Structure formats: structure tokens, C-alpha cells
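Two proteins follow. First one:
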Amino acid sequence: MVFRIPLRALAAFLAVAFLGDASLQGDTKKLSQDQHVELIRGLSSEYATAKIMLPNSRKALPFEENGTWDKKKWEEAFRKDGQAARAGDMVQVTKVDVDDDAITLQLNDGMKKKGSWRDKVQISMGGVTTGQTNPQGVNQPRTGTAIVLKFKDTIGDVTSAQVKKMLAPVLDFEKHSASENYTDTLPPETQQAIKEKKAIEGMDQEAVILALGRPLRKTRETKDDVEQETWQFGEPPGRVIFVTFAGSKVVHVRDTYAQMGGSVAQIPSPDH
């Protein structure tokens, strides 16, 4: 028996299949972007205590996802470039690079910074910079280094919390992070907004980054003789958030949904 499918019905079926596949690809891309943002936000500026001696190294020190590392290579780096941190020293993650099969953490600005990291480090939170060099009473190392966490195939769906556990043999992230300490100083409504991953008026730039991550782009303009800066999060098609600052404080938040063609619809407030 031969079944004949009308051409119009076949075309409709193929169109539905194509749209379903495109939607799946779009969701996969979104998940990948979300994971990238989570890793950057969850690891950047974090403090950790060195559990072993960390050598300086002009190349990132290799570390395997199973918690092992080539001790000979680390010892060679120490003999060549010296010590970056002793066991018990506190270090800070100053840069995070995420690749398909590796995550690189730069500690104390790596080998790029000259002079004593201990003498020059500053912590900037919400536009307030302090000269405190030893935030938790632990001796700070003089220079930096980098560790590259290597995965056998791809990083998969690993999270920042899992990365910290993988690095537990050499770095202890269990103490409160700089971002956690900073969040505790914020007003309750701002803390709640950060938990809900949204920006509200009155937030400073550091709080917005904790809530939404790093902006896609920034634009500046002068309005009524006041210089304003607008941060954009997301891009069409999809949700796009515009956060406008006057000075360091948020003065306006515009939450939209933008189509690929450029049309923009305002997302109504939950109160309306």
C-alpha cells in the first residue's frame, strides 16, 4: 500500500520540524551563554587560601578536572620563576577565561603586574576604593600566577561551585568571598534584587554586575547637563535590559523584549 501525502501538508510538516530544531538550537545557545556568565560571575574576584605552595609561571599551571596536577611541572615553574604564594596565603581570582575544554583562573593579576601585589592591591566595591591590603589578616603573596583547569572533552555543564570543588586540593574557597561580604553591606531591597537577578533604581554599578553580570555594551549621553551612562544586557531576539546610571547610581531601568527586526515591546511590571 502506498500512502500519498499532499504537498501542502508535507511543506507544513517540514516547516514545523525546522522551527522546532531552530528553537532547540536557540535554547542550547542561551544555556551556553548563561553558563558562561555564571562561571565568570561565580569565580571573578573570589578569594581563596592556597593549600600548597603556588609557583609563579609565565604559562598557566595545568590542573586536571579529576583533582590531580603534574607536580614536576609546578616544581619546574617554581625553580624558574619563584614563588607566588605560600600555603596559607590568600589569593584573589582577578581574571577568568572560559574555553570549550578549559577554564583559566588568573590569580593576583598573574605575572603581568610588576612589584609587590601586596603593596598595591585595592578592593573596589560600589565605587569606594580602600587601600586595605590584607582583608582577612593573612599574609599576601608578592606576585601572581595562573591555573588552567583542563577537561578531558568539554567543560560540559560545570558550574562555578563545581570548579571550586575541583580545585580544592590546591585552593580553599570555603571562606566568605569578597562579593558575599560586599552584598551583606547592601540595603535589604538591593540584596533581594540581586537574588532575583534584576536591577533596580538606586543600585550602584557593582550591585548591578552582581545581579546581571557584565553588560554587553555601554553608551554615554548628556541629558539636562547630566552625563548618563546606559548599560545593555542581552540582544535581539530576546530580552534586552537597559540600565541607566547618573554617576554611579541607577536612575532608570528599561526591561524589554526585542524582535530580530528591531521592534521592541516593554515588559510590564509584575505589579501591573
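Second one, unrelated to the first:
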Amino acid sequence: MKLLQILKQGKVQLGVATELGILDMKEAGEKFKESLPANLQELILEKDGLTKVKNITNRAIKEGANELFFTKEEIHFAPVVTNPEKIICVGLNYIDHAKEAQMDVPTSPVLFSKFNNALSAHLDNIPIPHGAVQMDYEAELIVVIGKETKNVSKEDALSYVFGYSVGNDISARDLQFRSGQWLLGKSLDGFAPVGPYVVTSDEVDPNNLNIECRINGEIRQKGNTRDMIFNCATLVSYISQYMTLKPGDIIFTGTPDGVILGYQKEQQVWLKSGDEMVVSIDTLGELKNVLK
């Protein structure tokens, strides 16, 4: 299923993308007198939540309940996950990106974090913080954890994944490299847009997805997840050896080459206010944001 979160009257609620449009699950529950998960986190946590949502979606389509469906232009997207306990990011997870950043190819995953303040949604404007000059993009596949994950094997790791989404690990490089820790340049307000959808894991092969980033229409990044140094199963397993992943946690799995940081210094033209960033991934959709 292709799920999303809608911001409506100040509240985040669950939606489903269908061939008829975006189905508002709150209104569907009221119409069919069914108790449904209010948001994605409740859906992940509820044992039969996904089955309930599938059944109501099929019923709404079958009965032609057109009043429950909206176009993408009629809704306000929220981040696909709004309150994860952890946002874990993986650095240098594509060989060509490690080389362009002039850093050693890692022998184990390079982990860092973002905080919830960094979350933003499809079509949100991203504020450029005061003093930041070297604004950059990083197109990434997002893993959404579906159940408590501790000490899992690589073979079992993907069974703990609820779904996958599109992300942009926006970075202020001048702040990122101000010290040996990357946090300042990575977890600024709005610097972790995710969305527009979460596609459930039964519909996605995370090991063969094309990733693309366009800036003002120009292709800057073009890669495939098969080129990851550490694939999704390896990342989930590795992280789970050291910290318990909880339902709703998200993992930014790393970016292919093509970021501005990798250009020769004389060719580095950093992003500025008004620049449009579009990240697209096969089967998952297209995430669009503008810097302001």
C-alpha cells in the first residue's frame, strides 16, 4: 500500500494513495463506522491495522465513495513519520560518494543522527538558517521500522521493516565541518524532508531502486540502491546490535555521488533561496522542496 499523512485542521491523520485519489481514512472511518488508526504510528503499532485500512480502502473504491477521495493538490502533506524515537543516518554508503567527498571507504556503517525538529514534508519550504552558506542536497532511500528490532540477523532484518520512503538529507556543509561532529550541519530545522508516501515493504525491493535528484530541473544525482556498500538488511541488522530500533524509527540509508561537496572547489555553486530540490525513487514517488 501507498500510505501518507495529511495535515488537516492542525492534526496529522492517515491517508492512502489510490487510483481514485487520496483517501482520507478519518472520513472513511466515520462513513463506514469503523475504528481505524488515526495516523501512521498507530497503524504500525496496531496488530491488524494494515488489514483494516486495506479493507476500508477496497470498500470505499468498490462503493464509489467519491466524496472521501481528494487530489494531491487538495491536501496538505505532513511528514510520513512525525515523531520517531530515532532518526538514524548513514554516511558514505556509496563508494563513489565516499570518493567524491575525499573520505575513506568505510569498513563498517558510518552512523550519525538527526532530531525530530529536522522533519519536514513534501512541498514544505526549507528555511536556510542564519549564517549557513554551503547548502547541499542528498537524495536517500528511507527505511521505516515496523516492530521492535534488537540483535536481528541480516537474513531476518527486512522482516522488521514496515515500509520505505523518499528522503533528502539536506546539509549545510560549512556548519557540518565546523567541528569533527556532523550534527550541526545536518539537524537544522526542516533539514530532513521525508515523503510524500510510505510504501509497505511487501511492494518494494530495496536492493534495486533507481534514485535521482534534480535541482531546478537539472539532474544532479543518478544512482541505484544496488550500489550501496551496506544494503538495507545489513544496516538494520548492524544498528540493532547496538541500539533497539522501535516502530516508527527511520533510517536515512546514504546518498549516491553527485552532491555539491564532491565538485571541484571552483565548480561548487551552493544552493540558494528559491532553488527547487526534487528527489525521486522507483515505486516510492517524488519528494519536492524549495529552499527559502
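SUMMARY FIELD: Residues 2-77 form one domain. The CA atoms of residues 99 and 105 lie 7 Å apart.
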